[in-house]
Amino acid sequence: MAVMMQAFYWDAPILEKQEYNWWNYIGERIEALAGSKINALWLPPVSKAADHRGNGYDPYDYWDLGDYDQKGGVKTLYGNRAELEALIKKAHEHGIGLYADMVINHNSGADEQEVNPLDGQKRWTKFRPKSGQFPRDWNSFHPSRFEQVMIEGEHFADFPHLCHRNPDVYKAMFDYARFLIEELGFDGFRFDFAKGFGSWMISVLAKYRYVKDGHDFTPFVVAELWSGTEEINAWLERVNAMTDNQISCFDFPMRYKLKDVCDTPNYDLRNLTDNGAVVTQRPMHATTFVDNHDMGDNAIVNDKMLAYSFIMVHEGYPCIFWYDYYNNGLGRGGTPNGIDALIAVHHSHAGGDSQILHADPDLYIMQRAGYKSDIVDQPGLIYVLNNLGDKWSGTSVKTQWQNTKFRPVAWDGHDAAHPDERTTDAEGNAEFPAPPRGYCVYIPVFD
């Protein structure tokens, strides 16, 4: 499986003094990201927001990518269309895909209030975008003549919410998705606030017959459904019933387990073995992550590498957070103690089923069974997670490999000592330890 990066955080261009220059700023790091084997970047919303310095989650003009003087300025917080296209081109030249953030539920920044004749309420629903694309009025939002009450999804803040059952809105969403894929060159979508509208809308946008470079193109699609496992599973059942099982969700349930691993004293690691996460029930539909731009005060505070180690060696499509990689300095390239080392082992060895070999309150040991095909050879690995804060810990486990040497390739914790190599006996048994409040990934060595 590949590795993606969320290539922004909240107010990133402002905090890094890169206002109106973020596309260029990412572009300067493309070579390094490709060298670290990042496969795709999730970009923030590209369209002009209600304020041109906004983060983009309150879209005003979907077709203004920073080229029209409206909402306080010309460029978006991130740049303009030419700079975005240059970033996409450079990323593709280095084998990196781009995912667009789709905010198609709520709008903001209307030019005028108007009375909705269906309920007599006055709202900000008159939009006259300077791009000339997708002008809107009260009938574009809930309630409209196409749906008098909002029967699908939840409201977000006090923004007007688009009525996708209006044929003009429906067509505009297709035109916008096609514009992102076919004209700008995006490779997939991340749908914001997916619980705010009908899952059918994501299904049909996913199955639209896009044409890219003269060929039919199927985009990668992941949804933000901030909810529990049961609701996410039910949503995935509905949305994938209309597609070829191509749509994934961010695994919020697993993320909260990992926050407890990092921030809750004496957390019982056996909680990682239950079926209470998307990745354990639907590994092909799980995008795993540690933190993102929405977490705020809920962000992981302690020993965050424990969480990254877990998502990088298990199933799922792991997403790395720009702020952790760069601002928190967890990339740690050229060392065995950071995200880069975990990316390397993810690509080279993390194939096949995850099989738990041992779990107690303070120690978790798993093996990936390995996977081999004509194009992929991932021999498997042993992963150890140690919750004890004062000592190295491990235990003897029975692996699938007999008389095999194992080399530690990625580790971190509260002790900087280098783990020793391990060798299994004729029955596949060996003891595999990890540092205090740390982890270690061992790979089989075949001479």
TrEMBL record:
Residues 412-425 have a biased composition (Basic and acidic residues). Its cofactor is Ca(2+). InterPro entries: A-amylase_thermo, Alpha-amylase_C_pro, Alpha_amylase, GH, GH13_cat_dom, Glyco_hydro_b. Signal peptide: none annotated. Pfam families: Alpha-amy_C_pro, Alpha-amylase. Keywords: Carbohydrate metabolism, Glycosidase, Hydrolase, Metal-binding. Residues 2-346 form the Glycosyl hydrolase family 13 catalytic domain. Residues 412-431 are annotated as: Disordered. The keyword Metal-binding applies. Belongs to the glycosyl hydrolase 13 family. This is Alpha-amylase domain-containing protein. It comes from Acidicapsa dinghuensis.
